[in-house]
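Researcher: Last one for today. Full complex below.
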Amino acid sequence: MKIRGAVLERIAAPTPFAESVPITVCELDLGEPGPGELMVRIEAAGLCHSDLSVVDGNRVRPVPMLLGHEASGIVEAIGPGGSDLAVGQRVVMTFLPRCGECAGCASDGRTPCGPGSVANNAGELLNGGRRLHREGAQVHHHLGVSAFATHAVVDRRSVVPVDADVPPEVAAVLGCAVLTGGGALLNSAKPGAADRIMVVGLGGVGMAAVLVAVSLGAHEVIAVDTVPEKLSLAKELGASAAYTPVELAEHGIQADVVVEAAGNVRAFETAVAATGPGGTTVTVGLPAPDARASVSPLALVAQGRTIVGSYLGSAVPSRDIPEYVRMWREGRLPVEKLVSSHVGLDEINRAMDELAAGHALRQVIVFD
Ligand SMILES: [Zn+2]
Ligand SMILES: [Zn+2]
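Model: Here's the assembly. Have a good evening.
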């Protein structure tokens, strides 16, 4: 079938992207879903820093690639052999499929799925190959999802069903921002009731971590970012204090659990320095592959501190998303507050500039 989608044509184009236009919105051919696959009509798709990292070349992926990995939609067709999901089911897309059979999948989320990672790096679906073509040439999938489009074919193991009362925007942000930011706390750090929690870097993932920390009833939730507006928003969302990195260092403020969600070396070093004795730094950001940080091993040993890396919040999406839905339904996790604006598919290059400038929390593309 014919779809409309946003295809990244070339990596590391000059900024502003609104002028260099590395992404074109065009018509593509979407193949039929194969065995174990679904065709999903996209309802909402969030712009995440991991999309920008492909556009600006920090995460090298094959092009042309149809971007978008944080999304929700409705199942419209099922591949041969059927599915446990029915047509009409709302699903959350998740950006790392889980084969369910490898050592990574047996690790309870700590290690990414091996075959899922291989497929993602190749721009293919979990079962191999691509369902996207343009004028006869293959177009790569982004993280098994490719949701900046009217429709997508995805592996069943790339989605989690949610009930119809979960609005499309809420469902979309559960799939990346909330899984990652929430998982950094619930799966990786597992804070105790008395622990002070700090989040460094207040994009969609970091702000989701703030929301989850507040929902846990943490006695102190400290938000850190360089942008004053984001500090104000974090306080509106329930953070007990908010600082710039400079203020943090000046006052020597530390916490027991510090989540780094900015994806750059300075934020990582800020997070490690702000982790108190016996505390844990959880890093979920994705800096450039050649980035190197400076950390004192002596301070780690002498103060009994821990640094943990957490990809996708060490999540098991089929286990964790229903839990976040439950928290949202109880009014404890107002994730709709992460959505800062709606944008049209045709505005995607400008929206990437907004994201790069650090202004946007979650810009969401809504399809009707
Ligand atoms: Zn993401
Ligand atoms: Zn696996």
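The pocket of zinc ion (ligand 2) is lined by residues 98-99, 101-102, 104-105, 113-116 (CB under 6 Å). The domain at 181-311 is CATH 3.40.50.720 (Rossmann fold).
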